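Backbone-to-sequence.
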């Protein structure tokens, strides 16, 4: 009996630490004028359970290692079991030896239409399309996992990005919006994962690694060295910008990082960043007001 209890405790501990995400999923239905409908509350509850209780990888995460993230679904219209809306995804990773969390993934997916019946099962199949609701959520889960892994190991997110690409490939057959191949600069899920995996945009992943592990994670021990490493990492984007000006991935990166970069270089030990400010103004002009706050 004692052995059985110990075994159950071990299995419970293993299962409890297996999930990868600590994700808050919010369904905002105010635009429908019927936000108090139990249907939306059920959807929100089911999605929270789906995202947080599904085992997305074969890795074991301790509770304190789970990735902090959020998904805010805004329902713009609902007719019977058909929903039209958007989904804003954000994730962050802790900085070594600090209480600070750094934003990593910040993406506004404006093409989120799906069918849903109250209490329907939400099951993810890694090789087969189940529903647009499941596919969109799962795609962004793997983008969260991939980008988080890239901040700890150079190109560490390969397996997660491959799964995200597989989801795109089989979901395109559903003809749902947002999965179509890249065309005319469209910021679709397909364009996002294709760009991340393309050698044309290799600096994106290199910067994710250098900026976080070689930069932010040193802030507690040597602020000046950490800032210099961050400058060196960001400067690599100039090569990417020359190759593909105003690229989708640069917008994705700076949507998550612009405020942080401005704060990092607006005080504390100074480093030579005159060239960096010039580079930032050129490659991310949409955040020029933030770059003007940087002191050098």
């Amino acid at each position: 009996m004692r052995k059985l209890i110990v075994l159950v405790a071990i299995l419970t501990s293993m299962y409890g630490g297996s999930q990868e995400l600590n994700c808050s999923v919010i369904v905002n239905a105010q635009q429908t004028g019927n936000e108090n409908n139990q249907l939306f509350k059920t959807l929100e509850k089911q999605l929270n359970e789906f995202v947080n209780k599904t085992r997305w990888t074969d890795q074991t995460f301790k509770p304190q290692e789970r990735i902090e993230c959020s998904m805010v679904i805004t329902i713009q219209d609902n007719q019977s079991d058909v929903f039209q809306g958007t989904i804003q995804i954000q994730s962050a990773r802790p900085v070594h030896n600090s209480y600070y969390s750094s934003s990593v993934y910040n993406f506004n997916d404006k093409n989120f239409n799906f069918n849903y019946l109250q209490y329907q099962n939400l099951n993810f199949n890694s090789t087969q399309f189940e529903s647009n609701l499941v596919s969109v959520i799962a795609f962004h889960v793997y983008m969260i996992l991939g980008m988080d892994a890239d901040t700890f190991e150079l190109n560490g997110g390969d397996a997660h990005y491959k799964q995200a690409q597989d989801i795109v490939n089989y979901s395109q057959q559903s003809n749902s919006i947002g999965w179509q191949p890249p065309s005319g600069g469209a910021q679709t899920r397909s364009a996002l994962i294709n760009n991340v995996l393309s050698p044309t945009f290799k600096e994106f992943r290199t910067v994710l690694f250098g900026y976080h592990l070689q930069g932010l994670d040193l802030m507690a021990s040597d602020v000046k060295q950490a800032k210099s490493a961050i400058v060196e990492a960001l400067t690599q984007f100039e090569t990417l910008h020359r190759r593909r000006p105003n690229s989708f991935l640069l917008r994705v990166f700076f949507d998550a990082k612009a405020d942080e970069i401005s704060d990092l270089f607006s005080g504390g030990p100074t480093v030579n960043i005159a060239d960096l400010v010039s580079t930032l103004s050129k490659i991310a002009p949409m955040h020029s007001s933030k770059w003007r706050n940087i002191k050098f």
